[in-house]
Amino acid sequence: MHDKRLVIVIGHYGSGKTEFAVNYAVKMKEIYENVSIADLDIVNPYFRSREKRDFFEKIGIKLFDSSIRNTAVDLPALPAELMGVIENQEVKSILDVGGDPVGARVLARYADQIKKVDYDMLYVINGNRPSTSTVEGVLKYLRMIEATSRLKITGLVNNTHMLKDTKVEDVEFGHELTKKVSWETDIPIRYEAVIKETAEKIKNQEILEKLFLINLYMREEWMS
């Protein structure tokens, strides 16, 4: 993995963005001593990375989240330590950000500081969501995120899934969709995120070359 020290994970509602961000943080902990994740998703009231605080603490990942937890607040207070997360060269940092205009606006606050450091912004795509099931839909949100955040997306993540019911066909559909977006934008596909049970059945070499195995950390066992 050749990602920059600061990695921003962004994606439309329902893309599985937070699940990817959590899995990514766990994977980075295998490589780096100091890893932090900042939950800046003020849009989605469900499955937030801050809900896994005990899990992160147990494996030694530092979690930062907004100090106001009321989801009705448009732009809640963000962690005072966030500047350190962005600027501290000693820590591998992940920012989990909401992917609509309100969510991306949080990033705009810090755009000038982020531009001064090496960063990657990964756009998580779930082709099974109505708003991002076409190239046009994906591009619409991509351009909106870039315009609102004042930052550039540097990598694409195919995360086309149906949770535990994900089939190989879902992953392949998402791969072709993400590949077309990559052609349109010259932004490379960085990862193909797939749950283990489905990944074992994949034969497509292009997908296998960038395979990123996902555990459903954000879904409890009783959830389908």
List the helices and strands and how they pair.
Layout: E1 6-11, H1 17-29, E2 35-40, H2 53-59, E3 62-65, H3 82-87, E4 92-98, H4 101-109, H5 111-115, E5 119-125, H6 135-149, E6 155-158, H7 168-185, E7 189-195, H8 196-199, H9 205-209, E8 211-214
Parallel strand pairs: 1-4, 1-5, 2-3, 2-4, 5-6, 6-7, 7-8
Helix pairs in contact: 4-6
Account of the 3D structure:
The chain is an alpha/beta fold. It has one domain: Rossmann fold, CATH 3.40.50.300. Helices cover 37% and strands 20% of the residues. It is built from nine helices and eight strands. It has helices at residues 17-29, 53-59, 82-87, 101-109, 111-115, 135-149, 168-185, 196-199, 205-209, and strands spanning 6-11, 35-40, 62-65, 92-98, 119-125, 155-158, 189-195, 211-214. Strands 3-2-4-1-5-6-7-8 form an eight-stranded parallel beta sheet, with helices on both faces. The radius of gyration is 16 Å and the shape is globular.
Number of domains: 1
- Give the mean pLDDT: 85
Can you name the CATH architecture?
Answer: 3-Layer(aba) Sandwich
What is the string of SSEs from the N terminus onward?
EHEHEHEHHEHEHEHHE
Shape: globular
CATH class: Alpha Beta
Portion of residues within helices: 25-40%
| Beta-strand fraction estimate | 15-25%
Which secondary-structure class do the elements indicate? alpha/beta
Q: Which strand order spans the largest sheet, edge to edge or round the barrel?
A: 3-2-4-1-5-6-7-8
The counted number of beta strands is 8
The parts where pLDDT drops under 50 for at least 5 residues are 68-74
CATH topology: Rossmann fold
**Could you give me the name of the CATH homologous superfamily?**
P-loop containing nucleotide triphosphate hydrolases
> How large, in whole angstroms, is the Cα Rg?
16 Å
Question: End-to-end span in angstroms?
Answer: 31 Å
Number of helices: 9
